[in-house]
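To: structure subgroup
Subject: Chain for Friday's discussion

All,

I'm putting the inputs and outputs inline so they're searchable in the archive.
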Amino acid sequence: MDGDTLYTIGELARRTGLPVRTIRFYSDSGVVPPTDRSPAGYRLYDIAAATRLDLVRTLRDLGIDLDTVRRVLAREVTVGDVAATHAEALDAQIRTLRLRRAVLRAVAKRGSAPEEVQLMHKLAKLSDEERNRIITGFIDETFAGLEVNPGFAAKMRATLPELPDDPSPEQVDAWVELAELVGDPGFRASVRRMAEFQAEESARGAAQEGWPGLTEITVEKASAAIAAGIDPASEAARPVVDDLAAAYADAFGEPDGPEFRARLLHRLEVGSDRRAERYWQLLAVINGWPVPPSLVPVFEWFIAALRR
């Protein structure tokens, strides 16, 4: 295009590839006004108008609304400011689309019912703050008014679900299951009993720091017994129970005997809810951490053996 040349709307359309009706709309809107008019009243455009039209097309292709385009052309805002704002908006849209994709993939995998699809989408699209509020509300109710081990309470409060921007179907599934789990009155009551028992133990000065070592020895000995096919109710389980009970008694600084074993059985039964372990497994899936192996089978074996 030459600097002094004027073009009709049809010529401008052929040179830019835009439809005549689009150029006419921009002209009527005052976004790309004609430079002049012919004696017959037809619109004419110069090189500056053509350049302006090209900028308008670029901004519109990027999804920028017409009012904002006008402000850019009037130099009320810079292209850089507009680009930054729209990039943020696109980021939000992309996160939403990724989340929808993950929900749809989870639905396709599970063959979910319509009601479940609605629940999955509702829970998955919550903000990080809203998701955390669901968990912290559960934790607050669990520990309300109790003097529990501060390290354990701090661990629970610090370990919150962080669903990534581009979650996998498994992470969406895990978040939905976790939200349903912490909303289950039966689970809440079970965890509350655990917290109350721990508070009672702390009040009477029972040791807590020895548990990691006790867990290791329980896993070692009970796993070996399970692998060997030893029935927890059989006589063959007695030596394993004796070894484990002695280890627990030593860690708690108490003599082993019927009374201690009765208290130990109660302690293990209170903390043996499979759903409590599932809680931590689901958090691991959501946060992309390695999922810890299940300890439930070994402790259930030990509990059954202690009951005989």
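Points worth raising on Friday:
The chain has 15 helices and three strands.
The CA atoms of residues 36 and 205 lie 93 Å apart.

D.
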